[in-house]
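Spend some time on this chain, tokens included, and walk me through the fold:

. . .
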Amino acid sequence: MSLHRTELGESGPRVVFCHGLFGQGKNWTQAAKALSADHRVVLLDMPNHGRSPWTESFDFLELADLVAAELGDEPVALVGHSMGGKIAMCLALRHPELVERLVVVDIAPAAYESGREFVGYIETMRGLDLESLESRGEAEAALEEAVPNRVVRSFLLQNLRRTDDGWHWQINLDLLGEEMAALVGWPGEELGDASYDGPVLWVGGARSDYISDDYAPEMDRRFPRNRRVLVKDAGHWVHSEQPEVFLEVLRRFLP
């Protein structure tokens, strides 16, 4: 399986970005363009998202191995948000020789209680009548009641594509809905005592509850050389809500 990628920049250290649930590699375009003057940047579509192939099951370790296969032999700076952050953490723990340093954006090495909000989005997207749909504007109007936040609605609708035979979701909604327990989980037992001793930066949103003091012991055990930054006036999508601050924090950490 080969993942869809976008590459920017011709020289400098390599930086690879992994997006979160419902996202695509292009979500990182603003940061990637800013870094491309002195870095070689790779934006990957995660499996079951964007233009990358679909898998038959959802397993963070398997997904991490698929991303690892895309990296080659040269160690990279690996950046992951949310679901992509968990994939990036698993990759660093399983293939530390491939990761020169790690940036984890608003997620912890932990199992979360519920993915109810995500399930609701999936059910809403699956409920859209694609056969009768005539325009993207019509799709947005159909989602408005269930997803009142315009930013979130636009984010979800980036997964909607029109081809010669009609409208389609690029994202694997059926699998992600069925595997939500695995998606919000964390493969701690399968990882055993694995740890990663490279430098790690956690970037959290001050208005988000995805990173809390409760998760600090596991963060420190798995990633002993970590430091943490909380970005003011940002929630879960730190890099979208405070792009300039996020980029500055990232630049200071990258080689």
Q: What stands out?
A: DSSP finds twelve helices and nine strands in the chain. The beta strands are 5-8, 14-18, 40-44, 76-81, 99-105, 160-163, 166-169, 200-205, 226-231. The chain has a mean pLDDT of 95. Residues 70 and 244 are 28 Å apart (CA to CA).
